[in-house]
Structures are given as structure tokens and as C-alpha cells.
Q: What sequence folds into this?
């Protein structure tokens, strides 16, 4: 447990705890024996390729799906029994925009605020607040369907937090958003976290995953690793060697055939090679290969989250 | 916010009403932006009323028929004129032989042919309704009709109309005063003495149009939210199924009321359909039926997987509602199984109610069976729809 990265770890109670959570769809096991413990007031990430069970896991934790087996406790509510009680305490931003395209920004927010039982006064105050925090004041009378991806996403976030939920679920929130909007979006998430909200976010972007306090790497419904991004990187079960040479494509093809090499990926003029942890001298091992010349430069470098992901999942190619 | 939770029943009801209000407002806003649907709300009753009221007519007139005149006398021509004067048929063709006439019926040129025999004058003179000349020499002689109709009997309405000419009075043919025979029964026609079918059709049309539009609107209601992806958001909120159902129904009650006003108002103004019952009774009967139809639509909506499916199921309900409800054919004339099916349709009960209120000035309470049936259907249906509506994605 890497606790120095978080200031709020002292809180013993978990916002989410799941125990051997499993969900089958027919023969397919979408989520398999997932153990999960999310501390309050942290941002927790689900990192995984498409079809790794991220959305199913979120739906199980919000009570939208019933688990095939396993225990779930979210904000003190036992699921699926107390799903109704939980609804008022959580916010959920779906992967696909799920507000009404044929209502304006303001009408959408008014609708949601009434659903959550805000009184007329609360509503007026809260709406103005949300519109300015999420930079939607100018668009307040625009139809939601006519807005850009980034604006829609800000509206969806505003709608998900209208009732100030203690726990916020975000399912691939930035998949339709440019990098600039993504940065701003994460600023908002950290603000919310600071105000006491626990956030669970699923993503397949490395840079986004790296921003989380803690991270679970999912593959085919199985949790491969979970810890803080820093801990994951420093405890990685592999070593990273960077090679600067000519004809990298050819070198890569030869190296990946070695049993000690987990994967190799080209990054511009460098080749990044993941070598198994048990190899004592990875540079020496690679240097011996006939495809490399003594002139080529080899160096051990600090692992990135992508390396962690690849070594955990055994994927040769990164999903995007 | 959370401290207000569980603050007692009155607060629960208040927040519940707020949620229903949210759905109603949202539906109305969406409807007002959907120009096509909004137009249909007005156009469907308007166009259908004009079409049905003009087109559906069981008093058939001016059926095109032909004649084969073997007699070629002044009398045979007078006979044709007399028949033509009834207005039921119009002679459009003359044929030389019976064979030729039958071929014309085969190819639908005419719906019937009057065949006047050579001895039409002798037959007429001996005809009992004319009653002069020599007394009949034998029983058989008196019973001979004066001419023959050859009719395309495939359409029963047309066949019956021509058949009604069978015993038309012939006295004026011979400048005699009209037959003054006393009929066996005296028949007093209440409520529609002039026998205009539009009087019966317009109130029935209210049922057909409401069945069509009300079921159509709500049958798509839940499916649409699912298809557009809004449902995933709605089910994570504290919105209860019953609140969603009621919120979906309320806006359409107003729309139904607008449609009924158009149909009955125009029916009264254009076709002189009497509205004998009180407006309050009318409103009550209509409200009951609108609710029943909307709930039926909601039930469809919880079963259908797509808007196309919900449309198909709407048509599935609509056809028996038109054919079996008593709108087109009298309920009493249908075989027992058809009556059972009719009994299960809200339209049947409403047609009884509205014809009672509009034409006969009875109160809804006097027809308590149909009233209670509609109320029961609405309540049970609403519960079934809310029960069937799943709050999980399983």
C-alpha cells in the first residue's frame, strides 16, 4: 500500500468494497471474482481495453446490474438489496451521452434537479452555480443535441453532480473529448474530490489513468493489478530497456521472439523493450542478440504506466 | 439535501409529485419541439373525421345498374323511371340480352341488372298490389313478380339495398293513390329519426381516433427513452417506475381532450350531430377512455424492444378496436367469440358510453358496468406497466 501519495488515506471506511464480485452473461464472464476497495475522497481508476469489463463493473457497483455472485457494499448500502437507497447518494455519468438532445442545457438540468427533489430556490442557486463552474452559462439556452463533444461532456458532469453525490461514477468520460477539454475536465474532478466526493472513473487512456490516486488494471473481467500509479510503476515485474539503433522494425521482430522479452514497442527513434524481471542483466542479454550491433545504445529506463499495463495484461499491442 | 430524506410521508409525496412534474414538463417540451407529432395531434382527428363522416355511409345511393328491356313499351319505361326515382339505383347501361347483362356484372361495369320481361303489362295488371283487372285464375298466376333483378351479391350492403326494392310500391305507376295498407308494426325511431349514419359514426370515431393516437404516443414512450440511451440515466436516479408512468400519461390526457373537442365540435358544426348529454358527462367518459388507452400503450411500451415493434403492436390493437368495438358493426350481430374479444377492448366500452352520453343523454354512472370496467382496466394496467418496467439492466 503506497500511502504517501494520498492525504486522505487516514479514513478507514471504504466508499466501495466488493468481494469476489462475479457477473456472467450466459457463457461469458464479464467480471470475474473482482475484489475492490475504494477509499473515500479519492479518485479510483479502472484501466482496461474495450471489453475488459469496466462498464459491467460500474453497472454492478451502481446497482444497475445484479451480480451473479459476490458481495458489494457501496456507501454503506448492501447491493443489490439497497439499490434504491443508494440512488440518491451517487451520480453516474454514462459512456454515451444520456441526457435529452431535444432539451436545452438549462431544461436538462432543471429536469434532473427536479428528479432529485431540489426545491425551486435550491434549484435556481444550484443551476447558476453549475452553469458557471462547468462553463455552460453561454450555452444555457442551446439544445443539448447541437453542442460539441466537450460541451456535452461538461453538461453530463454537471447533471451527474447536481445533487452533490458522495460518490461519482464516470464511465469513459473523455472518450469524445480533445486533450485541452480533458485537462479541464480533470481539474473539475480534482475540485470535486477536494470537496469530499469519491470518484470512480473508467478509462483506456494512460495519461488519464496516471492522474488517479489508485488504479485497477482490468483484462477480460479479471483484475490484474491495483495500486497507486507510482507504486505500480516501481513494483513492476519487468525491466524496461530502451534501444537507439537503425532498422528498429527488424530488431523488434527478432527481439519479441526471445522467451525473456515480454514485448517491444517503437517510440519514435527508440525501441522500448520489456524484459522479464528474473533476467539479471537485461542489457547484456539484448546486446548478445545478432540483430544488434555494438554501436547501438541500450539503457535501462524508468517504467511508464503503459509498460505496467503491457506487463500485467501480456498484451503485445496497446489498445487505444 | 440528504437530511430532508425520510422526513415523513408528506415530504415523500411532495418530492414524488415534483418528479412526476419533471417528467410531464419534459414530455411537453419535447412534444412542442417535435413539429410533426404536434401537427398530427390536430391533423389526425380533422382529416379522419372528414374522411370517415363522408365516406362511411350504410344508406347506399346511386348504385350503377343496367337494364334489359324485353318489353320495350311505355309501361316498361315508366317502370324504369319509378325505380330510378327511389334514388337507390341509377340506370347507366342498356343491354340487349340477359347473357350480355351478366357479362357486364362479371366485369363490374354495373352492380345489378333489371330484366323486364315481354309480358310486363300483363304481370303488372294481375299484381296484387295493383289490384285491378281480372281476379287471378290460379294461385300461381298472382305470385308472379313483374320483373327480375340480377344482383352482384358479393357486397352485402349493396345487395341489401337493391333487395329493399323487392316490394317497392307500384301504385303510382298506374296513377292510383299510394298504397294505404296498414303496416303490421309501427316503428318509432328514437335518437336518430332521419337514420343518418353520421350520427352514429362521429361519436364512434372519437373512440377510433383516440385508440389510434393515444396508444401510439405512449406505446413509444418508454421504448424511445431506451433507444435514445436516456433510460440508463433515468434508472440511476431516484425516479420510481409509477412516477415515470404517470408523468408519461398526463400530457397526453390534454392532447386527447383537444382531439375529442375537434371531433365532436366539428361533428356538431359540420354534420349536425346532436350532443344531447351534458359536457361534464362527456368529459368524464372521455377521460376514463383516454386513461385506459394510454395505459394500454404503456403496457405495450414495456413489452416492445424497439419503436417499430411498439408500432406493430399498436396496429394489432387498433384493427380489432375498429372492427369489433361496435364502431362499424353492431356488437349484438357478432358471434360469441368475437363478442368476448370485443369485451376485452377499452374501445368497446367507450363506444357504448359515448353513444349513450352524446345521443341518448344517459349519465356515465347509469352505465356503471362500462365505467367501472374502464377504471379497473386503467388501474390494473398501470400497476402491470410499472411492475414490468425494470430498474436494472439485467
A:
Amino acid at each position: 500500500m503506497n500511502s504517501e501519495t494520498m492525504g486522505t488515506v487516514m479514513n478507514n471506511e471504504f466508499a466501495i468494497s466488493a468481494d469476489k464480485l462475479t457477473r456472467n452473461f450466459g457463457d461469458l464472464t464479464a467480471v470475474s471474482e473482482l475484489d475492490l476497495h475504494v477509499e473515500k475522497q479519492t479518485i479510483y481508476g479502472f484501466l482496461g481495453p474495450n471489453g475488459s469489463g469496466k462498464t459491467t463493473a460500474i453497472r454492478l457497483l451502481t446497482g444497475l446490474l445484479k451480480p451473479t455472485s459476490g458481495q458489494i457494499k457501496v456507501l454503506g448500502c448492501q447491493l443489490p438489496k439497497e439499490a434504491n437507497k443508494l440512488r440518491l447518494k451517487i451520480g453516474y455519468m454514462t459512456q454515451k451521452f444520456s441526457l435529452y438532445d431535444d432539451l436545452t442545457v438549462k431544461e436538462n438540468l432543471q429536469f434532473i434537479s427536479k428528479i432529485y427533489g431540489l426545491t425551486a430556490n435550491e434549484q435556481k442557486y444550484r443551476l447558476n452555480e453549475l452553469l458557471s463552474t462547468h462553463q455552460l452559462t453561454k450555452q444555457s439556452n442551446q439544445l443539448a443535441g447541437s453542442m460539441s463533444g466537450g460541451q456535452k461532456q461538461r453538461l453530463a458532469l454537471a447533471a451527474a453532480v447536481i445533487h452533490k453525490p458522495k460518490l461519482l461514477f464516470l464511465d469513459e468520460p473523455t472518450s469524445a473529448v480533445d486533450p485541452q477539454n480533458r485537462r479541464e475536465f480533470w481539474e473539475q474532478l480534482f475540485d470535486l474530490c477536494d470537496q469530499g466526493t469519491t470518484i470512480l472513473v473508467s478509462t483506456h487512456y494512460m495519461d488519464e489513468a496516471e492522474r488517479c490516486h489508485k488504479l485497477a488494471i482490468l483484462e477480460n473481467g479479471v483484475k490484474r493489478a491495483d495500486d497507486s500509479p507510482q507504486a505500480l510503476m516501481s513494483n513492476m515485474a519487468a525491466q524496461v530497456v530502451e534501444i537507439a539503433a537503425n532498422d528498429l522494425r527488424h530488431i523488434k521482430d527478432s527481439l519479441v521472439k526471445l522467451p525473456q522479452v515480454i514485448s517491444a514497442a517503437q517510440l519514435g527513434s527508440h525501441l522500448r523493450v520489456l524484459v522479464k524481471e528474473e533476467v539479471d542483466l537485461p542489457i547484456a542479454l539484448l546486446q548478445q542478440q545478432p540483430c544488434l550491433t555494438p554501436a547501438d545504445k541500450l539503457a535501462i529506463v524508468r517504467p511508464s504506466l503503459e509498460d505496467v499495463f503491457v506487463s500485467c495484461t501480456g498484451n503485445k499491442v496497446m489498445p487505444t | 439535501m440528504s437530511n430532508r430524506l425520510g422526513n415523513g410521508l408528506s415530504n415523500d409525496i411532495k418530492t414524488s409529485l415534483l418528479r412526476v412534474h419533471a417528467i410531464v414538463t419534459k414530455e411537453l417540451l419535447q412534444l412542442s419541439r417535435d413539429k410533426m407529432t404536434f401537427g398530427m395531434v390536430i391533423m389526425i382527428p380533422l382529416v379522419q373525421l372528414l374522411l370517415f363522416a363522408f365516406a362511411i355511409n350504410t344508406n347506399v345511393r346511386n348504385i350503377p345498374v343496367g337494364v334489359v328491356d324485353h318489353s320495350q313499351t311505355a309501361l316498361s319505361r315508366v317502370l324504369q323511371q319509378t325505380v330510378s326515382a327511389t334514388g337507390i339505383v341509377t340506370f347507366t347501361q342498356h343491354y340487349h340480352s340477359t347473357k350480355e347483362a351478366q357479362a357486364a356484372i362479371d366485369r363490374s361495369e354495373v352492380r345489378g341488372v333489371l330484366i323486364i320481361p315481354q309480358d310486363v303489362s300483363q304481370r303488372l295488371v294481375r299484381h296484387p298490389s295493383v289490384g285491378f283487372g281480372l281476379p287471378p285464375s290460379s294461385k300461381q298466376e298472382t305470385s308472379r313478380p313483374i320483373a327480375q333483378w340480377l344482383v352482384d351479391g358479393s357486397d352485402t350492403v349493396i345487395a341489401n339495398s337493391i333487395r329493399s326494392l323487392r316490394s317497392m310500391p307500384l301504385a303510382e305507376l298506374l296513377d292510383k293513390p299510394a298504397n294505404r295498407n296498414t303496416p303490421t308494426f309501427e316503428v318509432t325511431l328514437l335518437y336518430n329519426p332521419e337514420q343518418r349514419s353520421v350520427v352514429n359514426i362521429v361519436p364512434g370515431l372519437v373512440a377510433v381516433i383516440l385508440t389510434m393516437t393515444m396508444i401510439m404516443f405512449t406505446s413509444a414512450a418508454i421504448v424511445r427513452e431506451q433507444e435514445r440511451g436516456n433510460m440508463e440515466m433515468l434508472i440511476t436516479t431516484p425516479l420510481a417506475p409509477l412516477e415515470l408512468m404517470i408523468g408519461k400519461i398526463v400530457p397526453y390526457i390534454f392532447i386527447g381532450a383537444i382531439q375529442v373537442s375537434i371531433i365532436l365540435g366539428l361533428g356538431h358544426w359540420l354534420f349536425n350531430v346532436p350532443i344531447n348529454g351534458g359536457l361534464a358527462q362527456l368529459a368524464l367518459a372521455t377521460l376514463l377512455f383516454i386513461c385506459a388507452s394510454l395505459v394500454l400503450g404503456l403496457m405495450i411500451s414495456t413489452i416492445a424492444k424497439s419503436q417499430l415493434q411498439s408500432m406493430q403492436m399498436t396496429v394489432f390493437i387498433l384493427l380489432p378496436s375498429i372492427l369489433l368495438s361496435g364502431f362499424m358493426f353492431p356488437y349484438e350481430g357478432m358471434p360469441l367469440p368475437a363478442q368476448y374479444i370485443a369485451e376485452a377492448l377499452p374501445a368497446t366500452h367507450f363506444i357504448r358510453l359515448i353513444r349513450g352520453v352524446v345521443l341518448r343523454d344517459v349519465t356515465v354512472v347509469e352505465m356503471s358496468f362500462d365505467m367501472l370496467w374502464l377504471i379497473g382496466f386503467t388501474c390494473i394496467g398501470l400497476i402491470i406497466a410499472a411492475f414490468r418496467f425494470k430498474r436494472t439492466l439485467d
